[in-house]
Amino acid sequence: xxxxxxxxxxxxxxxxxxxxxxxxxxxxxxxxxxxxxxxxxxxxxxxxxxxxxxxxxxxxxxxxxxxxxxxxxxxxxxxxxxxxxxxxxxxxxxxxxxxxxxxxxxxxxxxxxxxxxxxxxxxxxxxxxxxxxxxxxxxxxxxxxxxxxxxxxxxxxxxxxxxxxxxxxxxxxxxxxxxxxxxxxxxxxxxx
Length: 192
Known about the structure:
With 192 residues, the chain is mainly α. Among the domains are: 1-53, no CATH class; 114-158; 160-192. It is 81% helix and 0% strand. The protein is flat and about 100 Å long.
């Protein structure tokens, strides 16, 4: 029998091995001084852990830990209150600025009214341009795919049928293993 691993030693000390395994471990311990020493050290460590005094936890220990694990969510009403407070502060400071600066009130209101409209107009123009660009890119991509497939098919028809079948099978197997490997890379942590 090979030397014992740490988990086997702990299972032996806790009495969680089957009768055959425990007798095999005892037989090995009789002839292996390094494993005997390891078992003695683990036994002393277990005994020292059992003799440690239990510490007193504060009464609010569990709620504090749970708050750190799952922080309280801010309610929708709190968000609305904060938004209303910010908007009210903005209005109050704007009015104070207008009265203290002695500037006319009507041009400020018209500029304040037109700013969101100009913003919406600018955003809509940008969105239209992005949409046109995306449609153009999709058309170019589809044309490239069409050219590639036509060229591939014209070259493929020049090849003998036996070679066509073997190439097709090769590419199918290649793509199967390629996508299988990508899938495994994405799922690395999910099976653990």
